[in-house]
Input
Amino acid sequence: MGALPQGYERTGAPPPERGVHAALAWPAKNALENSGAPVARGHLCGLKAALPLRPCNSPRFVLAFTLAFLLLATLTLSASAAELWEAALARMPLPANTRELNGTNFGPTLLNAFQSNTVVKALVLMPGAIDEFYFFRRARAQLPAAPTLLDAVRALENQTLIRTAFRPPCLLLHAPPDPLTPAVRILDEATADKLRTRQLPGELNFFDRDWPRLQPLLMRTFTSVWTGYPEIVPAAKSPDSWHFYRASIRAWNLTPHEGLAALTLATRTAVTIEKRRLLFECDPRAVPLHPPPAP
Output
C-alpha cells in the first residue's frame, strides 16, 4: 500500500493508489493550520484531510443567492407569460385582405380581431399608440399575407414607436409617454373588495369612446357592485372631463377592479374608489404632449 501525501492520515478503507482520486490532492494540513485560515475536518475516499472552511450562511451570501433565485424565477415567469399571450394572439386572424395598418384602420382592425380567451382578457389601445396614428399621423405598418393579431403586434413593434406590454390580464399597446401602471386610489376597502370579487357583465367593446358616451355606460355596468346606480364623477358633460382621452378597449370576463384599471390606462386618468362613488381625474403622471423622435 503506497505512502500517504503529507497532511493526511488513514481512516477506514485504504485509498486507491492511482486514478482520479489521486488527483484530488488537497494542501497539506500543517500549511493550512500555520496560515491562520479556519479549517474543518472532512473525509474523502477513506482519507481525513484538513479542508478550507468556506462559510455559505453569511448574510451577504444568503442575500445574493436569494436575489439571484428571484431574478431567475421572474425571468422564467415572464418568458412563460409572453409565450402564452403570443400563442393566444397567433390564433386570432385579421381580415385576409389586410396588408397594412394605417390611420384609417388601425383601431377597428385590432379590436375586431381580438377574441375572448383564457390568457388575455383585455386589449387596450393606449393614448400614446392612438396618437401615433391619429395625431402625429406618421405610423404605418406593413403586414404579411394572412396576418394574425400577433403579426400585427410584431409589425407595430418593428416599424413604429408602438410597443406591447402584457400586464395580466391586459395587453397594452403603448408609446411614449404612456404610464403602464394604473393610477387607482382606494379610500373605502369594503368597496374595493367588492370590485375585486364581482364580475362585470358581458363584453366591453368600444373604439374612440369619449366621456359623454362612456360615463353613462359605466353607471349601468357598475350596478353589479352596488345596489342602484353608483355616482361616476365627473358627470357626462362636465368640463372636468374635457382633457380625458377617448377610450379604445375590448375585454371579456373582467372584474370591476380590472375594468377600472384598464379604463384608467385607456383614458389616461386616475380613479379614486370611495364608498358609493368613483372619481375620475386626469392622471397626474401624464407629461405634456410633444412629438417623440421618429423611429
Remarks:
- The chain has three domains: 9-52, 67-176, 181-286.
- The chain is about 35% helix and 20% strand.
